[in-house]
Amino acid sequence: MATKKTKKETTLVIVESPGKTKTIEKSLGPGYVVKASMGHLIDLPKSRMAIQLENRFEPEYITVRGRAKLLKELQKEAKKSDHVLLASDPDREGEAIAWHLNNALKDKTDADIKRVVFNEITPNAIREAVKQPRDIHESLVNAQKARRVLDRLVGYNLSPLLWEKVKNGLSAGRVQSVALRLICEREQEVEDFIPEEYWSLEADFVKGKTQFTAQLVKYKGAKPELKNEEVVKKIIEEIQNSECKVSDIKSQDKTIRPKAPYTTSKLQQDAANRLNFTSRKTMQVAQQLYEGVQIGNSHVGLITYMRTDSVRIAQSALDDVRNWIGKNYAKELPEEAIAYATDKSAQDAHECIRPTYVEYTPDSIKDYLSRDQLRLYSIIWERFVSSQMNNAKTRTTSVDILAGDAVFRVSGSKLVEKGFYQVMKVLSAKEEVTGNVPALKVGEILDSAHKFYPEQHFTQGPARYTDATIVKMLEDKKIGRPSTYAPIISVLLDRYYVTRNNRQLMPTVLGKMISKILVESFPEVINEQFTADIENKLDEVAQDKIVWNDMIGDFYGPFKKRVDEVESSTKSVKGFLDEVTDMKCEKCGKPMVKKLGRFGFFLACSGFPECHNTKSIPLAKCPVDGCDGDIVERKSKGRGKSFYGCTNYPKCSFISHFKPIDATCPKCGWFMVEKYDKKNGNYKSCINPDCDYLHSADEEQIVPENVE
Prior knowledge:
By secondary structure, the chain is of the alpha+beta class. The protein has a 7-stranded antiparallel β-sheet, with helices on one face. Strands 2-1-7-8 form a 4-stranded parallel β-sheet, with helices on both faces. Strands 20-21-22-23 form a 4-stranded antiparallel β-sheet, with no helix packed on it.
């Protein structure tokens, strides 16, 4: 008698991204079917607020447009399965996606539905995760729901207010408006800064056949104040024939500790500084490394989940990295693993960003990665491996040379113990090793200073924010979360409230106006402390300490009252910046009007809609003799990079790659521009190549002609 075969149970695993379905399916083997939800299938509609104000702010969710077919396919697959594992990303957003899927599937199947999380896409981690299914954490879902509702209430109240008072199509948000405020305030500091002149003085000294350069550090027993060229010349005259003697030699050792593995914000900062990546690009490439790359015959997830504010390391990863260091750099292996403290406000839901397999060194897999993937993987690998190695030690030697009343100093640093720098390539700290110091002794007489190098400088103003520094500021001030830093910057750029120039984030005219209105009208909402307090309350919701509806209720009453007050008391500034000019439309003869658009100011014919003529705003008069043209912004073909040229082109071929500012040079009358370089930072300069005028403190005495 034939035995009846028992039906083998099947398990449906639903992940967010299709990029990891094959890897997970292969790791789990027969009996598992892996499908992707492609992110949110159920969410708030975009066309209306969809928050039930009278029903404790409950959201009205709908199936996302275009996703109904995919949802039905998942429901059909769930109906055929014995078990369903919801494996969306291991964060609050992922928990909410799992919650929505659970609600959409539970009435369509008899399968047991559970939640699992993959902190890394490796066979062992995947198999271990499915052995530990759990229920959905309602408190995490409530925290995500509270953030979503709060942002919807703020955005859907402030945006229409801006449409009514300023311009159609504008938008405002709870977190990005605070980031915009920070960028605008920094820009004001940059604009208000007046550089001051100062000088430095170096000199060449000779011992035998060795020549070296030292810098003036003391004069007549005090730090020299070299305010102008005359002061420097006077010092040179006094000391140039003096005896030069080595007066002091000091050596100092410095211990350098390795840094903790990466969190999201630290990864974004280093990728911006070291690799010149935007925050958005960093997260896109990190997502690719997390989901997996084809290495030989295997699809391998190379890093752990890239949205985290914890530096915690799993014990298995500690064991692996210590074994690797022991085999390759045994002398640099500490007796015990190094522990790093995670910030108290960190969620610590999962560990740091680290390589899943330490054995996959950047060199060993470089042929399988794109250039960007390799560079980002390299800094993640180096940061993690170095975090479990011995300290490095540098020795700095300084030699003081007395020449009359002046003391010149030459310094140099070298690594005396490489420690964790053994594995550093992309992240190597060049500043730790500087020039060599000649072998000298105290009391030794040197040849008189052969040559002096006086150099003019100007003090640098505050630096504009870059992707790296704004992320650091957001993190320091507890504004937003690791998952929101990149989207905040992207939203400001996409809406043209901010532009990126030389890696610097600069507010547009529109961005400044929006920020001014919001900050003046809603100072208690568009500020750092309120935003940080909200993050703390969302954490309390996630920890089940407070009820999310009550939190929203405490906020919304006073906020809506203020919105109504602003709506009734604030005058509309629609068209306020429109300015009739004395220029005539070349098509119809009517006056041209200066208007503000989403890309900045432009000129439009006042005869609109009959006449659609528009053109760029003149930024300055063309400085070429005999040319009566204006300088306007133009864009090159291809990448569309901005430059500034004459309206009489091709008759006049004047071009500037620097944007004119609203000032003329007091020396030659040409227009001024703002320049940037690493040495001087931001500074203002005359565009005339034959003029050496720099914007400095003496401009404070220049009074415009139209000021009485």
